[in-house]
């Protein structure tokens, strides 16, 4: 009886998502794994747990993440607060931040030793996953493929559009203005990683000796990427065609 009551209480949280979960086996599995994360970790071990979770999240849709109780763009530390809206089928373009039919464009999943953020493109075709562990730092997967494995990455990234994902990373140690401080990135002069989901390629752009990239910001203009030293700059340091 105790086990049955525990299961009933657990599934009670998914009640508003029942119709969606009937259509989404991935959503059901993600719900179960997110609510029993410690049990799965004990069963599988760290590496298998991570590999299976990444494979699952790489197949997940926005509403799978919302139904599983992950925090969303509107409030990272709480599950969806308007499931009656977000569980509905979207009639038009998806939005970045709900409540809106189809859900938000980013979701956050935190346990004792890791924090995982999933970012969806506006067309819902691509997803980027930033996986943080205390001992390993931040790692990036885009559409299930690792990217930037040789870089020290920031804990936050974003999609420029439906093609390019951008995340900051540690700058070159030999930069003449390089200093170190506290933060998710400890270098004051930083580089930036850009992943092209269209071609599946990743590039890391580093500042030159005369460039002071303290908060490098990437914008897209037509078919060019513009790299600015920080968010306040109006003139780009670099134009990438």
**Low-confidence spans:** none
Sheet with the most strands?
6 strands, antiparallel
Q: Number of DSSP helices? A: 7
What is the mean predicted local confidence, pLDDT?
Answer: 91
Give the overall shape: globular
Structural class label: alpha+beta
What do these coordinates show?
Helix content is 24%, strand content 29%. The protein is α+β, with helices and mostly antiparallel strands and 241 residues long. The protein folds into two domains: 1-120, no CATH class; 150-241, no CATH class. The strands form three sheets. Strands 1-2-3-4-5-6 form a six-stranded antiparallel β-sheet. Strand 5 and strand 6 form a beta hairpin. Helix 4 packs across helix 5. The longest helix is centred in the N-terminal third of the chain and has 12 residues, at 46-57. The N and C termini lie far apart (64 Å).
